[in-house]
């Protein structure tokens, strides 16, 4: 008896199986396929092994074992999930769909052929009987098959029935039964016949046929299309069509006919879109108040806005009600605003601003989940407002910065009057309206920053408004400069992030004032004085996060600009203006050794020195002076502050560069004149370090100076005649370095003296090595190769002896 491989039992739940089962009737385990066959074979193998194991059993006394001495035994379990084989070819359900679809197509083609061929020899009665009989037969047969559960066949024959019905109407029109119908009238007749019959079949026929649910809205579509062509009231037809489609959608939702509901929604939405576009075009073409509402040109737009609420009758959920209300609000606002948009730009701005504020009030009152409804018309009204405000601000900015080049105008220079499409006085109301709208739709966490920015932004708008008129430039510059200083002064004692924002806004206002004041040296000096004072206050007494950083970063640049503009006012030559700038910014860096201040001071020094050097006729002398002054200041900071000791390298480099510039200007071409002073200074500094710190390494203290002292001379000798006094002196210097290194046991002098001296000796040998006969070089090469080969073979022989010795070991 099989214990495991029993084909009559389920291998999983052990339930009794029927004959040739596909799956287990109890646990739905698949019992066919390669995996099931492999399982059955495995279970049969288990039965066989179990029988062999039982036959080999012998009777033996029981033995007590310690179970802890043996590891636990676990049967291997396969965890790989078997995936069913993918079906190939067509599924069983696809075959009838294809066959019945082709059959329906053939029947419709046959019906059209019948009308084209047999119409001429059949009488009226015969034609009528044949078409009506075929239509009734296909429709009745389709309904009967659908009730019997043959859904695909029912859909196909119902499609044939509707196609034949359309042909019936066309044939009746050709027979003259409808009189003289136009093509639009024929479309109305065909659409009405299809829609009414499809709706009747939906209500009375098989409940789940999809074809009538699609044909009913399609018939409405065709009838409306024909009515548009035969009537002068297009908007009325569109409105009635949208209402009828909404009714069909409601019917579909009430009876749970999803195909009918979706088809009706698609048809109604398409006609609503057409009504909206047509209504907007008609209203825009006749935008006057009388033409819109007395002559009726705004009726289409008004009807579209009302019909946008039609989805609410279907009791939608989620976002549909909000979208419907937002669309209706946009269309209604557009219709109400159109009479005021066809006059002037000023009137356009006022009308859009009024609607923006009105909807902003609505947005502030409605719940936050419904704010999208007023936000849509707000966006429609806010776009022209934003465009006009940006245009006025751009014209004001261009008028201010187009006064002239820096330092070319007097203190009383006036702006030009700018003619604008919209009145300049509208800029402030437009900006305020945009801020109100932003506050109304913003989340609660964003409203406070928007409210805080309202006053400075409105003030900027007022300044920009002033810049559109022919006023003195100082009136436009003074206001943002003083406002920026006031904001910074108010932010100094704050300790929160609000102080940071306030100071940043004040800084932006001050920078704008400086940029606007550049055409006049007097105005630039005055505004930069305010900036310098504000930066100094921030550096000394700022309490909010980042205050001292901002003050340190801004103070050197502002001070440099102030000194430059003051020098322009005082008539100081441009060539000498960078000297006081370097002294002041360098003094600031020594006074406050902060990284941001030093970077700003360096940038100010480079810019001012570059401008001064460019303005002189002898740039090399000016460059040397500025490099010397910069080197002194940087070295002074390194000497005063222990934390700035690494700046001594930069200071020394600047001083050396100044010396090199002077040497080049004097025509000195010897490298030692450029390098020996710096090398001696480095060596002296290194010796001082060795004297103070007995554990210091000569490779870090003496090597930089010794390399700088010897390498340039060596390189010079490499490219020139090596037989010269320079070579003698360099050789003696290398000999001294070697002897000192050996005597004092210093690594750096010994290595540098040896390397440089060796390279110098080889350079002295080079002219004579070139005159050596070629056979000598060949002989030396052969000798070297022979020595290497003998050494290689000797080492290989030693390796073989060692391997033989190891092999004889026991």
Write a short abstract of this structure.
The protein has 810 residues and is mostly helical. Helices cover 73% and strands 0% of the residues.
Structure, explained:
73% of the residues lie in helices and 0% in strands. The chain is built from 30 helices and no strands. α3 runs antiparallel to α4, α6 packs antiparallel against α7 and α25 runs antiparallel to α27. The longest helix is centred in the C-terminal third of the chain and has 35 residues. It starts with 33 loop residues before the first helix and ends with a helix. About 5% of the residues have low confidence.
Give the helices and strands as they follow along the chain: HHHHHHHHHHHHHHHHHHHHHHHHHHHHHH
Strand content: under 5%
Using only CA atoms, what is the Rg? 50 Å
Q: Which oligomeric state applies?
A: single chain
Structural class of the secondary structure composition?
mainly alpha
What structural keywords apply?
single chain; 73% helix; 810 residues; mainly alpha
What's the helix and strand layout?
Elements: H1 34-55, H2 94-118, H3 124-147, H4 151-174, H5 183-204, H6 210-230, H7 234-254, H8 258-285, H9 289-293, H10 299-307, H11 320-337, H12 345-365, H13 372-401, H14 427-441, H15 444-452, H16 454-466, H17 473-491, H18 497-517, H19 521-541, H20 547-570, H21 578-591, H22 595-614, H23 619-640, H24 647-666, H25 671-692, H26 698-701, H27 703-719, H28 725-744, H29 747-770, H30 774-808
Helix pairs in contact: 2-4, 3-4, 4-5, 4-6, 5-6, 6-7, 6-8, 7-8, 7-10, 8-10, 10-11, 11-13, 12-13, 12-14, 13-14, 13-16, 14-15, 14-16, 16-17, 17-18, 17-19, 18-19, 19-20, 20-21, 20-22, 21-22, 21-23, 22-23, 23-24, 24-25, 25-27, 27-28, 27-29, 28-29
